[in-house]
Amino acid sequence: MKKERLSIFILPLLALSCVKNDIPYPVVVPHILTLDAEGAKSVDIDNDELTVSIVLEENVDLKNVRITGYTTDIEENRLTVSDEIAGVHDLTSPWTVTLSTWQDYKWTISAERPVERYFTIEGQVGATVMDVENRRAIAYASKTVNLSDVTVKSLKLGPKGVSTYSLNINDIKKFVDADGNAVSVEVEVKSFGDSEYWTLFVEHSDISVSVKSMNIWTKEVYLTAVGVEGQANGFRYRVAGASGWTEVSGSEITADGGQFTAHITDLLPETTYEFYAYTGDDMTDVARFTTDPARQFPNNSFEHFSKVTDADYYKWYDPSCDDPESREIWWACGNGEGKDGVAGTGALGLVLTYPDGNDKVDGGWSVRCESKSLAGVLACGNLFTGRFDKYKMDQNGTGGSVNYGRPWTTRPKALRVWYKYQSGKIDIIGKLPVGDNTKIGDNDRCEIAISVGNWDYKRMGGNPESPVYVNTVNGPYYTSKSEGVIGFGHLVSDQSCDWTQGEISLEYKSLTERPTHIIVTCAASYLGDYLTGSSKTKLWIDKMELVY
Hints:
The protein has about 550 residues and is mainly β. It folds into 4 domains: about 30-110, Sandwich (Immunoglobulin-like); about 120-205, Immunoglobulin-like (Sandwich); about 210-290, Immunoglobulins (Immunoglobulin-like, Sandwich); about 305-545, BT2081, beta-jelly-roll domain (Jelly Rolls). The radius of gyration is 31 Å and the shape is flat. The N and C termini lie far apart (about 100 Å).
């Protein structure tokens, strides 16, 4: 009897042990939120690519980088790390560490240590050519310099404060042999137990002064010339055809050896100027440049709009208006253009963006953007340069996609815009950017942003007119760190306000690159791309003006 009872008890257990577990593990991606390292100038964390890029001060040893701490968005007892991140690491090459939740995620931590290097001589013409890859430095001298008795003014080839040199600066003199043939000088530079061997060259230059480059903006220009170090170097300019010349003041000129650059401001847009550079008594031929136009957005006070065919909502262009630039789409919104273009939320009966003739600052109309709920999903009221792409509702989620941008080549310094804001309490949270702690009940935030860039539509997913593709369902998203951004600025506010004129300055990552497109976005909900915000928020926009 006992034996029978035992068998009956064991059989159900065996059956249970054979049940297959088909429940999938949750996908939890561990994100590094912060990372601190001794001697770090900056730390850039990319939670899409799972990378941490550290830029170090030049006196830090790449073989011994001390990471002092880091944080993630995963509780410590739910995270496994393959190697301890905090501590001393050799980052002469990228280091991979695995962070594990239910799955394994490989993060790459890398470091770079930019080193300022220079080699200058008396009587130098132009800037020194620093060939870091081949460890060569070439300085050019005026014809009056004796190449067998060169005076070196400055030399720095390795990290500051930790480098030693095989030759003293005063012993580096001979760059020709007894027969007058050019010779080089080799210098050993030691730092952190390693040696680099640099070769120095000095050669005579065939010129004394020449114009090297012109970087032309709308009301300013950067002129760079090559002259003789130690001589009086400068520029004179005038409006083309004028009688007198204006001397560029010394405070507007910077020098690098014999190369000198003038930053001339307060110029007139679309105006041709003449200038020449000089060094001592020598001068270049007179050259010309024409400043860029002070171009403004079409329909920048939003006076031109028209009803979508067979619908009761609007698009922000009017094919029958008297302004040629406002007859075709330039501004767009989430409403879409229905039968006149690409259908958006308006085709679903959800209108987010309206012309407002009762509440405005300039002209007869403003634009009112309202965030609303669509079946519990936030639909953000917006206005932007570009075109709505499509509304998405599938197994991956609900949202929309847009193509941002319009062709543009000028470089504004700021955007002035009139805006009014009614901030609602956040009542819908879809997703959040990594590290964002927004919660239900917080004030919603509006954002007005401007950027110029040279985006390649083939890489960014858009089209030649509007190159930057954004998908609010599962990315990609657009930020100031996105590829191709040259200049960016934005205004973000969680405070309700009556009509206010804001001025948004652009911060340029490069002063020499020229843009191909411009992006302006106005969103009633700052996290609208993430389907997070208040369904009660409203943002009004009127009269935009670019400042040059």
